[in-house]
Amino acid sequence: MTEEAHMQMNEPEVHFGADASAARRATGPVILDLKNISLSFGGVKALTDISFDVRQHEIRAIIGPNGAGKSSMLNVINGVYRPQQGQIVYRGEIRKNMDCYAAAKSGIARTFQNIALFKGMTVLDNIMTGRNLKMKSNFLMQALYWGPARREEIAHRIKAEEIIDFLEIQAIRKTPVGRLPYGLQKRVELGRALAAEPEILLLDEPMAGMNVEEKQDMCRFILDVNDQFGTTIVLIEHDMGVVMDISDRVVVLDYGKKIGDGTPDEVRSNQDVINAYLGVGC
Ligand SMILES: Nc1ncnc2c1ncn2[C@@H]1O[C@H](COP(=O)(O)OP(=O)(O)OP(=O)(O)O)[C@@H](O)[C@H]1O
Ligand SMILES: [Mg+2]
Start and end of every ABC transporter domain (predicted)? Predict the structure, then answer.
């Protein structure tokens, strides 16, 4: 394991108590089924024969040491990478030729390990970019049919403002994102993903680099998104306190292979997972 992974694991864990317990959640049928996924970059095998499923309304965590293949897995799910082998079944249909655009259109949104926002644009405008796929009028229609296009724009702004209220970032709605502290930028990125009203939300280390208070806030928002909007969440996270408290099930990757899959308790007591990632005392 790298030094960075050790440092991340030595940080104090964040706990959320019984309220956040996954046991209270009723998850539905399988919505996303990944079957025997293999992905390589030249000689590097990022993923080897990985299979796992995601149930509707669950919080599904992906954990593992640095370089284990976690981000690659999310990139396969939202069509950034095409696996050389394997099958992805989304809502009962085998997905062929999936690209990012098609994934987003079909209800899969994500945030990135390294924040990907327009730093010079305001919080509101960044969140509005998340509505792009929902907009019917294009530039030409806006010029020709000013009234309907204007009404549509207003409807999208109302939705963006709802998300701003939900994430409690009203006070910074007109602030350029580049001026915000890191923790708030992460929250804005979540807002932009939510603006697409996704069915599945993929979160790549949404709490990395945050202090304990910021992590608690982010956790609360993730749980609220899951509860209030019914959004299914696939979450990569290194903080084991967070993972064990808020996830329904956890899949564990190591060197591109799956070494564990189950409830937080099952994974915590899996000897392969302890050896590769958790270490003693977890
Ligand atoms: N675009 C790429 N080109 C070449 N190799 C890549 C590419 N993306 C990922 N890899 C390699 O695939 C492996 C898995 O990387 P990935 O980023 O998925 O790991 P990770 O589990 O997300 O790690 P971390 O915890 O550090 O974010 C690594 O060896 C990485 O170098
Ligand atoms: Mg990663």
Answer: 32-280
